[in-house]
Amino acid sequence: MGSINVQREIEQLFKKKVEKDSNIHNAYLLVHSEKLDADIRLATGNDAIHPEQPYYIASVSKLFTAVLFGQLVEQGRCSYDDPISRYIQADVLENLHIYKGKDYTNEIKIKHLLNHTSGLHDFLEDKPLHGKSMIEQILENPEKEWTPIEVLNWAKEHMNSHFPPEKGFHYSDTGYHLLGLILEHITNMPYHEQLKRHIFDPLGMVHSHYIRMEPLEKNPFDIAKLSVRHTDITHYQSMSFVFAGGGIVSTTSDLFKFLKALVHHQLLKKETMDQMKSDPGKFTLGIDYGYGVMNIKTVPIFMPAKLNSWGNAGSTGSFMFYHPATEAYLIGTFNHFGYGSKGMRFMLQLIDKLQKAHKKQEHP
């Protein structure tokens, strides 16, 4: 009876969130906990078609990039402490990280990019020194193709760095573009092919793919419409600006396969996952950012222990987290740019409901 009640409560909460927000056109949710005998798979919104509809997972993609690095570290092909100058050509690195007149580029290590402590700018969220923002350019030039190098060059011209490496935390999509280039250099293989060969294929993630690539099996449902400022940008050529920090299209069920594989150490050894969590930057109060892993930790009053969980989230309201106390997988999206904090808050509300159901189960 408890699992039936919590499933009903979660479904009602999710639908209410979407119905009262006119910006959300489609939203998707998967909550699974064998401990609570709960399995919820939902799609709602005027444009939502089916729970198995693929959508842009946004910065949840960063955890995939981090896993590819973890695999290379386990194979001895690189180290988290390696300087990025070992793998990226000089012209790309030129004037990359200038702070107060000093060039810190050669001090940046792979780990600094993974946990956002490099001090580099964020080409997506930072305000440019002059001209239009990246988002404005995406909207105004929908036919423009962006290569990773073009994005990096634009960022160098229009952005300032924030601090020397390891002297703070600043979320940086610029850093994850660099990580994608490093992966390609080490493996001599395109980023999208690495995803397919080392993650999608082995896990049977048949409906997952890199942007504008084909999945292993054709999904009967179109990619969910992604909105920015009430504009549908789903099929814009300018969406090519995303790369190793946000370029994956997937479904909640496929992401469940991925997260479950991480929890059970099928993609990376436990020691590697522990290392990824143990050297974090401080994302915000109660949330650390390890090597691609957001780790929600106890902060008295603000972030109680019952919320402790790990995973990743994106600016579209996408999230993918595991909650060890209830052995719950929480995956979903509101699929609207600028909804990152709303997605996280909703995910924490879900955990709260699961915890209450768990308590009732233990003390009926």
From TrEMBL:
Protein name: Beta-lactamase
Beta-lactamase-related domain segment(s): 45-339
Superkingdom of origin organism: Bacteria
Organism annotation: Bacillus zhangzhouensis
InterPro entries documented for this protein: AmpC-like, Beta-lactam-related, Beta-lactam/transpept-like
Pfam families: Beta-lactamase (PF00144)
PANTHER family, per the entry: BETA-LACTAMASE-RELATED DOMAIN-CONTAINING PROTEIN (PTHR46825:SF9), D-ALANYL-D-ALANINE-CARBOXYPEPTIDASE/ENDOPEPTIDASE AMPH (PTHR46825)
